[in-house]
Amino acid sequence: xxxxxxxxxxxxxxxxxxxxxxxxxxxxxxxxxxxxxxxxxxxxxxxxxxxxxxxxxxxxxxxxxxxxxxxxxxxxxxxxxxxxxxxxxxxxxxxxxxxxxxxxxxxxxxxxxxxxxxxxxxxxxxxxxxxxxxxxxxxxxxxxxxxxxxxxxxxxxxxxxxxxxxxxxxxxxxxxxxxxxxxxxxxxxxxx
Length: 192
Description:
The chain has helices spanning 23-36, 59-78; strands spanning 14-17, 44-45, 48-49, 84-94, 99-103, 110-117, 125-128, 151-154, 160-165, 170-172, 181-190. By secondary structure, the chain is an alpha+beta fold.
């Protein structure tokens, strides 16, 4: 007898490396935003998170949004959802020692991050399984797989783009380098 296999409630993470953003322009823009105001604290510890960026504030951010509008809808369509629209986008500057607590993005459908400037020891993004499986999966499994893993880690690297379901809990490891990690985060949701 062969059992029929169905995959329910998958956690999809899309990744790519893109080269449409002028990172130097975004980096200058991020530091100018940091000088304007103290930003906001949501999941960040020790880092700067800007207020939401409006269209027209930075040409390179606008170019990223144009790309994201297509990519986010491709992702949404792949998993059976209708087209989405941007809800908000912001810059993050994480100096040495800073990190982001475990969190999700309530009120949106798909979220993501683009790394403007990032590298080794600057803190990778980690996605956490939150269905309680860690209490049921045997500790002596032969090999960690997509089915048995409780955490997935993706490298913080310049030009990397990650898109994920907004409900997927995630954190960012501490920056143990001597330079700032700079990224752009964003949320997409249902069209209003």
